[in-house]
Specification:
It is built from 10 helices and 10 strands. A hairpin with a 7-residue loop joins strand 2 and strand 3 (36-43). The termini are far apart. Helices cover 35% and strands 18% of the residues. It folds into 2 domains: 2-87, Phosphorylase Kinase, domain 1, CATH 3.30.200; 91-264, Orthogonal Bundle (Transferase(Phosphotransferase), domain 1), CATH 1.10.510. The protein has a 5-stranded antiparallel beta sheet. Strands 6-8-9 form a 3-stranded antiparallel beta sheet.
């Protein structure tokens, strides 16, 4: 089997995680033990109904090449499994760093460094017609050196001329236009606004006990800065959030303009 000729994978191989369709292993090349990779091993029987979605994710990753986006290397195949060889990111989920932070948040200057890298990753996606559709701290890894990687393109779509219609993503990070079933790349930018808000304050801009109660708040764009949580947050940070969490996608700051915001240089 060609996979085992190129990568060490056996009963002793470390499992990084598991999901609905299979497991992710950390391993290395048989020719160079310093070449560490992550291999998604997907059970074909379990994902038969989702094969188009998985192959679409592979196709999207194949067209993206950016230092802040997890790298896809190659695919192997046999009768029972599909093997996706990916870059191994040695670090932590941004969500875990948030939970470990004081009051469930991270220092503002550190957040600015992460968000600047995230905008660069998303700008590359959008320039290639890709809408991520699930931008959130759980889908971002931070390496030990502080470099960001955007992950999990399972819900991503290549947007052609027409708007996207299917509601997708994580409710707390969904843009109003996603709920209305008529959206594009601007929805990712909204999600970044939610991320900045929660990373610097430890709170979400929209609060509700259920999606049924949450979605009207998002649709109406009803949010505010909580005085206590934002008392030490800079004016520039709050200004950027205010320009991202805008109901109309056409009035929302785009990714390129966002990188010019003084929050990143102040």
């Amino acid at each position: 089997m060609q996979l085992k000729e190129n990568y060490i994978i056996d009963k002793k191989t470390k499992v990084l995680g598991s999901g609905q369709f299979g497991k992710v292993f950390k391993t290395c090349s048989t020719k160079d033990k310093d070449h560490i990779v992550a291999i998604k091993v997907l059970n074909k029987h379990k994902f038969q109904e989702h094969i188009d979605q998985i192959m679409q994710e592979v196709a999207i990753l194949n067209k993206l090449d950016h230092p802040n986006i997890v790298s896809y290397h190659e695919t192997y195949d046999d009768n029972k499994f599909l093997y996706l060889v990916m870059e191994y990111v040695n670090g932590k989920e941004l969500y875990d760093k948030m939970i470990e932070g004081s009051g469930g948040c991270i220092g503002e200057r550190q957040v600015a460094g992460y968000i600047e890298q995230l905008f660069r990753a998303l700008n590359h996606c959008h320039a290639n017609g890709v809408v991520h559709r699930d931008v959130k701290p759980q889908n971002i890894m931070i390496t030990e050196s502080g470099s960001l990687r955007l992950l999990d393109f399972g819900l991503s779509k290549v947007k052609e001329k027409n708007s996207l219609r299917t509601r997708a993503g994580t409710p707390l990070f969904m843009a109003p236009e996603v709920l209305n079933g008529d959206y594009g790349k601007e929805a990712d930018i909204w999600s970044v606004g939610v991320m900045i808000y929660v990373l610097v304050s430890g709170q979400y801009p929209f609060h509700a006990n259920s999606s049924r109660d949450l979605f009207p708040l998002i649709r109406d764009c009803k949010w505010s800065f909580h005085e206590q949580e934002f008392s030490k947050v800079s004016r520039n940070c709050k200004d950027l959030i205010s320009k991202l969490l805008v109901k109309s996608p056409t009035d929302r700051l785009n990714g390129k303009k966002a990188l010019e915001h003084p929050w990143f240089t102040s």
